[in-house]
Write a structure and sequence with these properties.
This protein starts with 16 loop residues before the first helix and ends in a 17-residue tail after the last helix. Helix 5 (94-106) packs antiparallel against helix 6. The model is unreliable at 1-13, 98-111 and 119-127 (pLDDT under 50). Strands 1-2 form a two-stranded antiparallel sheet. It contains 17 helices and two strands. It has 453 residues and is mainly α. The protein has helices at residues 17-36, 50-61, 71-74, 77-92, 94-106, 111-121, 130-159, 164-179, 198-213, 215-223, 233-257, 269-282, 298-310, 323-337, 352-379, 384-395, 410-436, and strands at 344-345, 348-349.
Length: 453
Amino acid sequence: MRRGFLRTPARPFSLRPPQVIVAGFAAAVLLGVALLSIPAATEGPGGAPFTTAAFTAVSAVTVTGLVAVDTATYWSPFGQAVIIGLVQLGGLGIVTSASILILVVSRRVGLRGRLRAQAEVRTSGDLASLRRLTAFIVAFTFAVEAAVVAALTLRLWLGYDRSFGRALWEGIFNGVGAFNQAGFSLYSDNLIGFATDALILVPIALAVIIGGVGFPVWLELRRRPRTPSRWTLHTKLTLVTTFALLVIGFIMLTGLEWGNPDTLGGENPAGKLLGGFFAAVTARSAGFNTVDYADMGTDSLLVTDLLMFVGGGSASPAGGIKVTTFAILLLIVWAELRSEREVAAFERAIPATTLRQALTVAVIAINAVVIATLILVASNDLGLSSGLFESVSAFSTTGLSTGVTGDLDTLGQAILMVLMFLGRVGPITLGVALVLRERERRFSHPEERPIVG
């Protein structure tokens, strides 16, 4: 038989893991737009305009919390339920949720499905552990959320003269939002009304910290709680960097706003410390606020920009470039300043491929924020500080704002939607794509050093 007549059977259409992730989040956004466009989702007559429904759906699925309308008064209880449902869906991850459904229905997960779920949760372990990891993610998420919801419900019921049903609903909305790092609130002033109530703010702050560390860290802490020396480099870098950023953020924000009468200046010392701590925690990607950020000093806004840009831990609902990426960048600088040939931490060398990936993520993130800020400042009546704050908040899926989100024109809100989607999906798909494209080159080019600096 002639070779020309031999044909390779066509491969069925399939998507690569990064494409599955993007498609999953896009589908969730479209579902959210459809549900929020229903007239029953709003308090007023008629349904929400497309741009309002789209902006809210993107913000909810990407667990951001930026709002173009007041969540407390614009959306009906049905609309609010849709929002918090999208937040939970986005927090768990579209691909992880799909893997859970596969496990429930067929009790089996193929290699491709495991790779997809692994891409979403960014685990580096054995593929056979996916089932345990998925079960742990779900159980851990609901356990923490239940504890926070219980604490908030009791406080609102007994301390604020709410009916039990109302207190429970507010507890669920705030508790789920806090763990999933989404700053949506059922109160028009967010949490400013609870600015000095530690029984409300501390449970929310703890949920933000716990949710923002990342599931691989908690899984390892559960397995080896008493042997830190055996923890992976990822766990060590995440915990150390998270703690350092919380402390630095607390000291700087509290100190800078201590005498500001419009933010912390009017509180007693205990209230100032609580407010500074909460601001440092929520700037890491949560988006709740107990002060009006429009009244903050430019220096405090810049500190918050930096905290938001770094974000939280990998495989968490938090956004940003992630604390491990930030730690690796610092280690690269430190090694170069000391003229060391390898970048190392905790007696472990970091592979060159990981270093390049961290640099790639950081450079792309910086360029995305700078370009978006330029467009916002040029197309809207915004100062550089407000435009930068809005762009960083959207890209890092934090949700903090100086109050200008609802006043942006259609182009401005579209830019923020792109940033929120890119900030949530981009780092995941980029990381997976970089890993999948890794290959060992069988030859080396001759070296030549350009002048640096």
